[in-house]
Amino acid sequence: MGGDMIIAAESGGSGAFNLLLLLAIPLVFYFLLIRPQNKRRKEQLQMESNLQPGSRVMTTSGMRATVLSVDDDGVLLEIAPGVEVSFVKQAVMRVIQDDDAKGADAEELDLDEDDDDADDERDGGTVDLTKDDATEDDADDAEDEDDAEDGDDRAKAKTGAKAGRKSSD
Hints:
This protein is α+β, with helices and mostly antiparallel strands.
């Protein structure tokens, strides 16, 4: 039994292949994991150090805001007119370029007030939320409830008829 272990150890393969495999694994980890992460970290630090008041940014939570002031470790952002919040610099995910803000992002967020008027015209104007029509709606609801009760009575009658048949069998 001891002789089998010695034979297995000797026929394990060449030492050069094992050495190559031992060196290749750390290289793969470096090029696929460590190096890209360091590159992203450097870009993030550079972006944080280049923040200036007036820049449009997106936070890690997805809010778009304008930088009002920059401190050593924080920024003051305006997320809506008159609404100012303080964030740490690391919460800024990216700086939004001017052409991005005017392009698809502006359409997506519907930032232009002029478009609201066009939307109202396209949708048929404003929606009337008064309770003038409530009496008509209440009457319709009462009719629907009566119809539902009639349907329940019919269902009970059918169930009773089936029960009567089973008991007579």
